Amino acid sequence: LASGFDEATLELSSKFIRIASFSILFVAVPGVFKGYLVNNGYVSVTESSSLVLNVFLISAIVFSVYFRPSLLIVVSTLGYLLQYIFFLPSLRALNYRYSFALDFKDEEIKRFAKLFFPLILGVAVFEFNLIIDKNLASRIADGAISILNFASMIQGVFLSIIVASINTVTYPIMSRLAIEEKTDELNRVYRSAIVFATILIIPALFGIYFYSNAIISLMFPLKSISASEIQAIAEALVFYSFGIYTYSIREISSRVLYSHNDTSTPIKISAGMLIVNLVTSILLSKVMGINGIALGTSIAGGYGLVRTLTAMRSRTANLELAYIVKSTLKLIVASVVMIMVSLPIYRMLIDRLALLPLVAVTAVICLLTYAIMLLVLKVEEARLLVSYFKKSR
């Protein structure tokens, strides 16, 4: 997986992997409970686990920088174990009891197995692409894997927050509507899911492009990495960021196929994405270095999105793509205005404020400008969000 490592680096990586392997159990078993709670309406409880995990992951990074590098893996693994402590009261409220019985002839077990393995392969394509990236990076230069790791980690934060949150809420609904053959309602849920995701993704892409150096510098202080490494991570992140939209929309769109019990199509698409990523990353890395690897991954995401949307057209006649495109154009306009307002202020304050307050002020200006533009441009989903928050008060 990292054929360019020297012996010492390979030994250290093997040690870290042995420690981190315990987290597989901590993720797999409670992950079943997460789906169980979501289907019973405990959505907010399941999302709290991500908050606990992120606290541990951030702590792990800090501890590894100021104390010992091995703490990065130890604290992260502990976070994967403890992130599910909030599940216990809700499971008790649902009177959940575990039964030590397994009948492979049970129809539900057979149906689960039929859906499980293709779904795992379809979801894991992004991780497989990262493995390809790291293998290629290990052959380019010392430190190349670390640069891609940092950039892909930031990209992964956006994907996990946006995709996981939306899929957690919408997938059970789409599955139910597909079973009930309520195609029009399913299309509306899908349309809303895509637009809500795009509302978050588009401004994030603009923010990454214009403020990537500030974001990287804030997350990784100069005492832990050099200024040249920050610049390299920022450049790789920009090329990875093109894939944030394509991978996010593809993952949400794939759930429509899964809700129709179509597992073979996503597997074929995932296999094609791996091939596209391998070929494009190899070719582009020879011209662009690390950035070419990141761009190759983004191109593979675009290929997967196009193939997924094409497959969906055979499942549902009306994807309301015209509405989605119209909403996306509005969001691009709102994001452009956001940058036009925030960037001059950022440049004016860059020599007057420390990094943290500078980023905080810029983020607030971006958020307010973007929110105002959503209302001015009459983005329907933004109006729904405002109505929801008014009712919840």
Features:
393 residues, mainly alpha, 15 helices, 0% strand, globular
Question: In terms of topology, how is this protein built?
Answer:
Blueprint: H1 7-20, H2 23-39, H3 43-66, H4 71-82, H5 87-93, H6 107-123, H7 125-137, H8 144-179, H9 183-219, H10 227-259, H11 264-288, H12 290-315, H13 321-349, H14 355-376, H15 380-392
Shape: globular
User: Hey, roughly how much beta strand do the residues contain?
Assistant: under 5%
Distance between the termini: 51 Å
Share of helix, binned: over 70%
The ordered H/E elements are HHHHHHHHHHHHHHH
Average pLDDT: 79
Rg over C-alpha atoms, rounded to the nearest angstrom: 22 Å
Number of helices: 15
Major beta-sheet overview: none
Low-confidence stretches: none
Helix and strand content put the structural class at: mainly alpha
Report the count of strand segments: 0
Can you describe this structure?
By secondary structure, the chain is mainly α. The chain has 15 helices and no strands. α1 packs parallel to α4 (71-82) and α7 packs antiparallel against α12. It is globular and about 65 Å long. It starts with 6 loop residues before the first helix and ends with a helix.
In short, what is this structure?
It is built from 15 helices and no strands.
